[in-house]
Design goal:
Largest sheet: 8 strands, mixed
CATH architecture of the largest domain: 3-Layer(aba) Sandwich
CATH topology of the largest domain: Rossmann fold
Number of domains: 2
CATH superfamily of the largest domain: Vaccinia Virus protein VP39
Function: Catalyzes the irreversible transfer of a propylamine group from the amino donor S-adenosylmethioninamine (decarboxy-AdoMet) to putrescine (1,4-diaminobutane) to yield spermidine.
Enzyme class: transferase
InterPro entries: PABS (IPR030374), SAM-dependent_MTases_sf (IPR029063), Spermi_synthase (IPR001045)
Strand content: 15-25%
Shape: elongated
GO cellular component, one term: plasma membrane
Organism: Natrialba chahannaoensis JCM 10990
Structural class: alpha/beta
């Protein structure tokens, strides 16, 4: 009987409006993360800011809608839908420009994304907040409680649909502009249904006009505001995990993930290490007894696969790569030097989380390279003492861990580096650090730890001797890395990172808004990432 009632159910116009507003509001909330993250990062402050702003806008809309509900009508709800659709067109057309302008505001870094979120997503969410109290007023339910409960249920069901569809279907298969266009046209179609079948002239003409604006915004926005200083965008896509871009600037091809550079290729000389720090991945080869003893290597994080392919070609070893995003691997195959990994015996790719992989594998590794950190997006479960213990268990008795940590060598921006070093040192007998830039700015600091308590102490003299012996076999000269060996940091005030304590975000906080430099092998030039709150021009190295 209940199934028959569900099959026979036909929503009223107010009920349809509530459902669509739930779909759209939650869809925009998910979409906001993807719009904001490339400019401001995907850290907890960005996500928390989006949730805070959108919930505040929705609450304000509920409150104002409740005060006006006595005069509510389906026609007024139609205009609310059309007004929201107009603002979605603004988001599609001008989001890049607004993000650029708001990023220059002089705000503390943790709050830098709030103006952009308020401007882009506050107004449409506020307008959608009116729909629920209007629908409750127009409901056919007898009591206030029944009407409110019915509206809350329909809105929540819509939110579930919007959240699930946007996360699992739309973002993996469509671009941001196309998804925004879909939401906008959905609002326009709902507005027309609300005034059907009479279709008064004004809302009907407005609906057609707004639909045209949405289409033009989706078609013309990116082209008009295409002022990308980085070079020619060869590919741009939204993956289930991040925004992925491939950019060509003369002979250098760079992979950007959520707006941050992750890998680079010299198209004229594919074997060159464009980023100096990728040479440092070979440091474990100076700390093993014999290079030929390295049989199996694990990279946690693939990116453009510069390190993994280098190891597979240089050493007689099997290289396993855990890259959680299959789209990154596909891009590495198409635009970088990664050959079809399915046809290779020396390189295996696993599309899963690094910690889950280590928990489930029975393999023992001679070297584990941890290359999954970003400047402002660090997966905390790959930083803790529990993870380091797991990595130690999966290493051979004389195995070596290499972690690419992004932080400053000293000062407030070194807090994460000090905590990560202290955590690694808690598990491994010896740990060593190497800076990759002479600047005291945020950079790629390489932390190398030995699993063998009886291994010799690797001071500069020992490392230089082994580098002289092994440079030819490694294919790189690490004398520059050895010169950049750091003294053991003062970690007296640094915490040991643990699974049950969310300290990583607070440790990253001093790095927000600070310059991040990446040394390049080409003449030792320094490149800098523009950060929220600072004009990009001030960061040119």
């Amino acid at each position: 009987m209940a199934l028959q009632q569900v099959a026979a159910y036909r929503p009223t116009k107010p009920e349809l409006a509530v459902f669509v507003s739930g779909v759209t509001s939650m869809g925009l909330e998910i979409l906001a993360v993807r719009v904001i993250a490339p400019q401001f990062g995907n850290h907890i402050y960005t996500v928390g800011g989006i949730l805070t702003v959108l919930l505040a806008a929705l609450s304000l809309g509920y409150w104002q809608g409740g005060k006006r509900a006595a005069t509510a009508s389906t026609r007024e709800m139609s205009w609310l839908m059309l007004g929201t659709a107009v603002y979605v067109a603004v988001v599609i057309f001008a989001s890049d420009l607004l993000l650029t302008y708001t990023s220059t505001l002089a705000l503390p870094p943790r709050y830098a994304s709030l103006p952009a979120v308020i401007i882009l997503f506050g107004p449409p969410t506020y307008l959608l907040g009116f729909i629920s109290p209007y629908a409750a007023e127009l409901s056919r339910k007898r009591g206030t409680g029944e009407a409110s409960g019915h509206v809350y249920a329909l809105g929540t069901i819509g939110s579930i649909v919007g959240s699930g569809a946007t996360t699992f279907i739309l973002i993996p298969s469509m671009g941001i502009d196309a998804i925004g266009l879909l939401f906008g046209l959905m609002l326009v179609a709902t507005a027309l249904i609300l005034v059907a079948p009479s279709l008064p002239r004004r809302p009907t003409v407005a609906s057609v006009f707004i639909a045209l604006i949405l289409v033009l915004a989706a078609a013309g926005g990116p082209a008009i505001f295409d002022v990308d200083h980085r070079g020619e965008i060869v590919q741009e896509t939204q993956t289930p995990h991040q925004q992925l871009e491939i950019v060509d600037d003369d002979n250098v091809r760079t992979m950007y993930l959520d707006g941050a550079r992750h890998s680079a290729l010299n198209k004229d000389d594919p074997d060159e290490h464009v980023f100096t720090y990728t040479k440092y991945f070979h440091l474990p080869m100076l700390m093993t007894d014999e290079i030929d003893d390295i049989d199996r290597v694990l990279f946690v994080g693939g990116g453009g696969y510069t390190g993994p392919t280098d190891f597979a070609e240089q050493y007689d070893a099997t290289v396993d790569v855990v890259e959680i995003d299959p789209s990154v691997t596909d891009a590495a195959e198409e635009y970088f030097t990664l050959e079809d990994h399915e046809d290779r015996d020396d390189l295996n790719v696993y599309a899963t989380d690094g910690r889950q992989f280590l928990q489930n594998t029975d393999e023992t590794y001679d070297v584990i390279v941890l290359d999954a950190y970003k400047k402002d997006q660090v997966p905390f479960h790959l930083t803790t003492v529990e993870f380091m213990e797991l990595a130690s268990d999966r290493l051979a008795d004389d195995g070596i861990l290499h972690a690419n940590v992004i932080a400053a060598p000293s000062g407030p921006a070194a807090e994460f580096y000090h905590a990560q070093y202290e955590t690694i040192d808690e598990v491994f007998p010896e740990a060593y650090s190497f800076r990759t830039s002479d600047a005291n700015a945020i950079q790629n600091i390489q932390v190398v730890a030995t699993n063998d308590g009886s291994a010799p102490v690797f001071d500069e003299k020992v490392l230089e001797s082994r580098n002289n012996e092994r440079a030819a076999a490694m294919g790189v000269d690490l004398s520059g890395a050895i010169d950049n060996k750091l003294a053991e940091p003062d970690t007296d005030d640094a915490p040991v990172l643990r699974d049950d304590r969310g300290e990583v975000d607070s440790l990253l906080d001093p790095m927000f808004g600070q310059r991040y430099v990446i040394e390049e092998s080409d003449g030792g030039s320094v490149e800098a990432e523009a950060e929220p709150g600072e004009p990009a021009a001030s960061l040119a190295g």
